[in-house]
């Protein structure tokens, strides 16, 4: 039916139409403003009700119905389609009531596109475009129940894993071959003597630090994160550690000063600009083309060391921020379709679900990093920190607002556990990581931990009477009490190698020919085979805490070589790691607390744990030199608010 342009003046506007717009779940679109226009151009704008909306004053004939694009698309694309096997309740609802003036209501199926005022800038998915349902012809003096086709509500979950300084899973695989070759040489009779000192010292001949490390807890957590499974859209994204590049040499600027193209900030930018989009396309592949659109993106973010700094920076870049590199990267990728009006700044659309941190280190030589975490930045934050770490350049940045750890957000958890930095975050080799049964050289720790010096008259002077020797001896005995060795021994001469499992003292003395003074230098050294399974306990703690709030990790499998706690040593250690694991695995689940698990060990148990499993990360070199507080080796600590 059409209206002649010559009869507009005589047209009567006494007709009506009744509309009731519903989704497939029979829920209304109450509150949206709808525009109705008849064939004469008469326009009426109404607010949709939770039920029939009567609109009067039209000429007889066809009426077009549209809704303003932005609110319509945002609302319609959040309405879920019927699940397989479900039947729509709209037909029964249509028949249940009588329309205006007792007319029988008509059930009409339309698409989102049918009611758009203009074609959307981002094309609608197939099946939702204009004209892809039954013909959208509405007439006056009729009552319509309009059923809008629903959407598959797709929630994308992305796990982002920032590895630590000098840690790189790809480079580890390269270096592992070199370590296996070294172990073969150490075991071969014809080469053993030539390499004896090197093998006994655990001096693995790898020049690239990231090739000398085992896979960290970040690399393992990445492997444990569930990819797409049973319809769920989840993707795991690994970001190589600060100071490293896949298959390339390490960079001093990144490792030492957190600057340049391999800095923590550069790794965040790499994740946002390229890596996340690459992994979405790689892991979801053709699935992306089958999705109506992505309605929400949830993130789980993990980091170790300066990678934990990167993780915190990543959270602050995304949380409640509309304009950032990841929004640009996804917006420019045509295969990744977000719902209309997707708002990166709205936590209903983009939310950080879980943040898992291993021993945050933020040392940046020139630029302060944005690592302060707001209490509501994520639904859950867990931080595991190292009790036996005190290197100068490895200051800790807590997630508590005080150094003591008493002021903590109700959804945060921080747990202090025994071990050095990489005992908590992983990276030390375990026998289970190697195929060669002669693996002692790969897990041997030989390190100079202190040098004491003094000068005195050389007339009647024994170096062991010197101040340097007394101070070194006292320090060495303190280390035995702590468990870093089982007794103090004096080495016979300066060429003697440190004694296995002892705290060794190497004395050097020299007489000044012109001053009649003697200089004495006493070096304190350790040489131990340190089993490498302990770091699996903090990994298990983190995975358990994450699973407790729905993070998609696979079921923990304690018999897998990468997760095994039983030592592969010929003589089993006295410390029962499985018992410790059972005791501590749930420690990070409790919210709003800062815990110290070292207090759960008596002095002898802690000493034995150090002796068999914990590494002494500080040494006398420039990079790993210790930090001192009031004359004692102690870690420098920044609060969450200070940042570090």
From TrEMBL:
It comes from the Bacteria. It comes from bacterium 19CA06SA08-2. Residues 622-644 are annotated as: Disordered. This is DUF2235 domain-containing protein. Signal peptide: none annotated. Residues 339-430 form the T6SS Phospholipase effector Tle1-like catalytic domain.
